[in-house]
Design brief:
Blueprint lengths: L2 E4 L14 E2 L18 E7 L4 H14 E12 H14 L4 E6 L2 E7 L7 H7 L3 E3 L4 E3 L11 H9 L5 E6 L5 H6 L5 E8 L2 H10 L5 E5 L14 E6 L4 E2 L2 E2 L1 H14 E12 L5 H7 L2 E8 L2 E7 L1
Parallel strand pairs: 1-2, 1-3, 3-4, 9-10, 9-12, 10-11, 12-15
Antiparallel strand pairs: 4-6, 5-6, 7-8, 13-14, 15-17, 16-17
């Protein structure tokens, strides 16, 4: 049986098919769900995304990629899309068996021969140009249809940079576009864990000095030798699965310090309440808050 898994469904809530193909855009190296042909799978198990447009996009592609009669198991926390799963699947023409366990709703459907509304859901959630921000983006990407205020705060105070650098957690390429306005920048690596963000950034940052890496920026080797960069810019994440996780941003700071040469500089933006000063003091020779506005602090740290 050919099976696929989307996301990381809790193993204690649903049985994961052995040898299943991983399809999540947040697992570097996985296959894109939308690139699989119609009827490719006998079964799909997914942790459905919390965003409504993204969730319907993923459900529609899962049904498209299932053979008629194939089984789809979709689950999500009740307060993060789970309460809507049944209705969304029924709107596609599916008969749904629903159960509840550990605050999750679990929906199981057998893909009917005829489904409805898939094309509209797939189009709404696809990579698209967002006129309001003038950038390519896709529902599900961080801050997909607006400029994140943390990035906006950093843009207001970011000086011209020079040499080789990286944008860790680059997203749509908002910071990268500003960095590359400096002719003194010779190379910029954009690293993001979200395949969709990397695809959008390729369209948003059309510059021969830019390189794009689909990877976890915290990894030991995101694509550049340690201790070689002149600068790093970043708006590090601090949420995981909807909950605040301060260790994420701290890990980004350690990664930035490892990538920089002696004397290299890191510019980062962070919510004012986040306790990054201790790890900055451990990893950098010096650091200073260069600006504070709208609940954010802009920090310059020198290796």
């Amino acid at each position: 049986m050919t099976a696929a898994v989307y996301g990381r469904p809790p193993a204690e809530l649903v049985e994961l098919p052995p040898g299943a193909v991983q399809l999540s855009p947040l697992v570097p190296g996985s296959v894109a769900l939308e690139d699989n042909p119609d009827g490719a799978f006998d079964a799909v198990v997914m942790l459905a995304p919390p965003g409504a447009v993204e969730r319907r996009f993923v459900l529609a592609h899962a049904l498209r990629a299932l053979r008629p009669g194939g089984m789809l198991t979709a689950l999500a926390p009740k307060d993060r899309g789970g309460a809507r799963l049944r209705g969304e699947l029924e709107a596609f023409g599916c008969t749904v068996e629903e159960s509840a366990k550990r605050h999750h709703r679990i929906c199981v459907v057998q893909r009917p021969a005829a489904v409805t509304g898939l094309d509209a859901a797939m189009a709404a959630g696809a990579l698209q140009h967002v006129a309001d921000i003038g950038l390519w983006s896709q529902p599900g990407v961080f801050s997909w249809d607006r400029i994140d205020p943390g990035s906006a705060a950093l843009l207001a105070d970011l000086p011209p940079l020079a040499g080789r650098g990286a944008d860790l957690g680059a997203g749509l390429g908002v910071l990268a576009r500003r960095v590359l306005e400096s002719p003194a920048v010779t190379a910029l690596m954009l690293v993001d864990i979200d395949r969709r963000a990397v695809a959008a950034a390729r369209r948003n940052v059309e510059d021969p000095r830019a390189a794009f890496v689909w990877a976890d920026a915290r990894a030991a080797d995101p694509g550049v030798e340690v201790g070689t960069l002149d600068f790093v810019v970043m708006n590090p994440p601090f949420h995981d699965a909807g909950a605040e996780d301060r260790a994420l941003g701290q890990a980004f700071i350690r990664r930035a310090a490892a990538l920089l040469r002696r004397g290299g500089v890191c510019w980062l933006t962070a919510n004012r309440h986040l306790p990054y000063e201790k790890v900055l003091g451990e990893c950098f020779a010096q650091f200073a808050v260069r600006a504070e506005a709208d609940g954010y602090k802009i920090i310059e740290a020198k290796r």
